[in-house]
Structure formats: C-alpha cells, structure tokens
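Amino Acid Chain and Its Fold in Token Form
===========================================
Scope: a single protein chain, as residues and as a discrete description of its fold.
Amino acid sequence: labelled as such and written in the usual single-letter residue code.
Position: the record begins directly beneath this header, with no further notes in between.
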Amino acid sequence: MTIGESTQSHETVAAGLLPQVAAAPEEFAELLPRTRRALLHRLAVGQSEGRAPSMTGAVVRGGRTVWTAGRGSVEGEAPHGETQYRIGSLTKTFVAVLVMRLRDEGLLGLEDPVGGHLDGTPVPDATIAQLLAHSSGLTAEARGPWWERTTGALRPEPADLFGERPHRLPAGRRHHYSNPGYALLGALVERLRGGTPWGEVLRNEVLEPLTMGRTTLGPERPHASGWAVHPWADAVLPEPAEDTGLMGPAGQLWSTAEDLCRWAAFLLRGDERVLGAASLAEMRRPAVPSEGNAWDAGYGLGLQLVRREGRLLAGHVGSMPGFLAALWTDPEEDVAAVVLANCTSGPAVAALAADLAGTVSELEPRIPEPWRPVPGPLDPDLLALTGPWYWGANPHLLRLRARGGLELTPLSGTGRLSRFRAEEDGTWTGLDGYYAGETLRVVRKRDGSVSHLDLATFVFTRGPYEPSDAVPGGVDPQGWRV
C-alpha cells in the first residue's frame, strides 16, 4: 500500500461551521504552521507505529474544522475528510442525544424505569439514566455468536439479544459497560417515535439539521474497507462489515472526519434545533464512578469522560471489526479532535485524538471572549446584594452576572464556589458545586432592609459574627477577643 498525505486549509472546510455559532474572528484564524506541523507529525507517527492501513485526523476550534489530514491509502488514494469509516461505539453518543431529546420534550424522565416505556425488557426496573451511563447491571455483550462479526438476522427479536443471565450486577451500583443496553435505548426511541426505526429518527432529527449527510447506517463510497493486521507480519486480512440489526444502536454507524467535526462542534456548543447546551452539559457530568483505582476516567449520560494532563475531555471511542475511532471534546478550550482508522487493533486512537486536541490547546491557547458589561438597565436592589458576605467568619464575595445570575466565591481559599440562576419568585437556584439545586433566598427585616442570605439553611451575614446579625445560635455577648 502506498502512503499518501493530504491536508485541508481552514477555507476548504468552512462548511463545517454550524449556522448559529458566533465567535471572535481570531477563533477562526488559520492554525499556525508550527501547530499544523506538530499535528501532522503526531498523526503520521500514530499511523506508522500503529500499522494502520489508513488513518484520518481532524481538529475543531471555535465551532469549525480547522485542520484535517490523511495517511496511508484507501483503494490506492490518500484518505481525506470525506472518506467514510465505521465508527463503532461513537454511535452511542447519537443514540444518547435522541434519548435526551425525548426527555426534553417531556416524553420520558431519566429516572423512569425502562419497563414503563418498553415491554419485555430483561431489566424493567433499570432506569433510563442507568442505561445511558452503563450502570444498569446488564450483560456486556449480546448473546453469541460474536455480534460484531455476525449478521443481525441471528438475533431477530429483542429477547434474542440476551442469554439466560441478562442481569449480571445490581442496577445502579457499578459501571459495567453494556452494548445490549444501548440496543434497548434504540428500541425505546423507536417506541416513543411511533415505531419509526431509530436510524430514520436519527437522520430526520439530528443528521439533517446538522448537515451530516455522510453519516449513515451502511457504507457509502468513498469508504474505507476494514482490515485486521497480522500481529507478527506486515500483512492484512479483510474483516466482515455486517448489518448488526437490533444491536445497531450500539455501534452500526459509518461517518467521516468532516461529519464528526460537525458532531464535535455540536457536542461543544449545542444547537437548539437538536439539543440545547444545558442538556449537553448534563451529559458531560459523571453519572457513575469508574472501575478500578485510577479515577482518571468516568462516564456521563452517553459520553465517556477522561482526564488527560489536567484537561477534562468528553466524547467516545469506538471499535468494530476492521475499524477504530475516537472523538474528544475539550469544552474549556473549545477544541475537539477526531481520529479514524481502518484496522481492528493497533493504533491507540483514543490517546492520539487527545494528543491532537492537546497540541492545539498547548501551542495556541484559547483566546478569551472580550469582557462586556451586562446589557440593559441594572437593578439597584440586585446591585445592593453584591460585595462581601460572611458564613460565620469565612468571607465570601457575591457578584452579579448576566441575566440576574449570581456567583458566590470564597475569599479565604476555603469554601464552596457556586453560580446561581435567578428564578421568577425572587430566589436563585444553585447551578454547580456543593449548592447545585439548592435555593438562595434574601431574608429581609420588617422594614424591608436585608437581614441575611439563606442558602440551604446556611446563613450569610454582612459582618463576621456581628452581634446584631441573625447568626444561628447567637454570638457570645463579650464579642471578639485579643
């Protein structure tokens, strides 16, 4: 096989920009030559040392594709951003978004038992959130033979996916990756969409709005063929590419680097036509602890989570016979990377994709958005709440943010930082940290002046243990001592 290489400039892939995304012009700038050279070198080393017949890589920054490259050969030509590869378990991220859409429409709740929506499941009491996070206790694989290399016709009914012991662990207690669990989620989508096949629902509700026309259930040319590479010789063997039928939601999809860059941009920023940014942020939160002693990886609602060199990445890896795939997003840096290869094993695509994103973050750190004052008239009552507050003797600072939101920051180096969303009844709801979901209230005196803040029963006063303040338990009458 010949080795070829192709790169695409920022202008070539401008179509990767999601229509509603707006960002500072510098975010769309061409990557620096040094950065492009480093990315190409990392991809080339990964393809060569991993002995992949072909490999493509791509990077997203500021909502659009800014770099793509291909190494190796697909039918005698260098692969490029529109070359299809099978993406395996990256399919699960698409299914998870479909489920979250159903939740946001009010058709299901994440804590609903799946048996309340889907008849005949082997774990009717497992919640939908547990299925999304692989904590339902279901078996890891479908009933044999090896489902990834055999036709789905061998398992024509949902009951055919499970053996005599479908439930291996107590639901909700441990992370235990389950491919059949996502087959159930695909069936759930079909059930709540009136019997429409999950792939058709995906195309109508997700792929078409995001202009991902090269993401399909089966291969469409130009596409790579899947290969197994001999472990001790430079030889290859073709792998089958079966239609996995009911197991499709676990790993059926084919896609391209360009389409997956659009997907990565969506996962970073959201698109109200598909799923909002708040729901995507919810998917990125750890839903269950990871296995083992190394707490550098976890799982959210359909998204894998890893910590790498101080950065928290969200995305997924995938494998099917003849193919490997990885997609990682870095929300803090607004960067994402994709790697696709057509071999069963060999290249460490998960580490490679993380390295591509990390290279951009290291060599070209994200330029912050310019600070701007809060638009519109300023509420003087809200402004009067800002400034120092004390939980006991521990100083905190309350800041006013956009749209009436508040941010409480400890000033002593210890304490609990949280942001709060304004509610219509004049209270605020915690968005993160210890106070997530808790209520912040302003307690007033009879004359209408502010007495203190009540946050989940904790009292914040304007002074540190002032005798005149509403301190629970009172203040020693002798006051502070030297």
User: Anything to note?
Assistant: The CA atoms of residues 57 and 442 lie 52 Å apart. Residues 1-27 have pLDDT under 50 and may be disordered. DSSP finds ten helices and 20 strands in the chain.
